[in-house]
Amino acid sequence: METEFFKSMSPEEKIIFIVEDSEVYAKSLQTFIQNRFLDVKEIKTFRIGEMCLMELHHNPCIVIMDYFLNSKYKAADNGLEIIKRIKTQRPFTNIIVLSAQEEVEVALETVKQTDCYYIRKDKNAFNKVEHLISQIFNRNNFPAIESLN
Question: Is residue 149 part of a domain?
Answer without folding.
Answer: no
